[in-house]
Write a structure and sequence with these properties.
The protein has 87 residues and is mainly alpha-helical. The chain has one domain. Helices cover 43% and strands 0% of the residues. It contains four helices and no strands. Helix 2 runs parallel beside helix 3 and helix 3 packs antiparallel against helix 4. The longest helix is centred in the N-terminal third of the chain and has 13 residues. The two termini are 22 Å apart. The relative contact order is 0.18.
Length: 87
């Protein structure tokens, strides 16, 4: 049995699952969906506001092999699992 921090185990894996920073996640989802992603994004703020989570979800959405029409990553393809694992 491996140990996983509770926050890491239940961390959102899609834009729709992000409960904080809804305006940011919706803006990023629309950018991915519309094919108008900026060349760089700066995620800044205090600890625990979701910077790493949103960065990983964005990376998953951009590299997902089975991304939905709404811009959401599948979370199960090889690209998504590698990004989520920090590789």
């Amino acid at each position: 049995m491996s140990y996983h921090a509770l926050a890491r185990k239940y961390r959102p894996k899609s834009f729709a699952d992000v409960t904080t920073q809804e305006h940011v996640s919706e803006t990023l989802r629309r950018a991915v969906c519309g094919g108008r992603v900026g060349h760089a994004y700066l995620f800044c703020g205090p600890r625990g506001v979701g910077k790493t989570t949103l960065a990983r979800v964005l990376a998953m959405a951009l590299n997902c092999a089975k991304r939905s029409e709404e811009g959401e990553p599948c979370g199960i393809c090889d690209n998504c699992t590698r990004i989520w694992g920090g590789h």
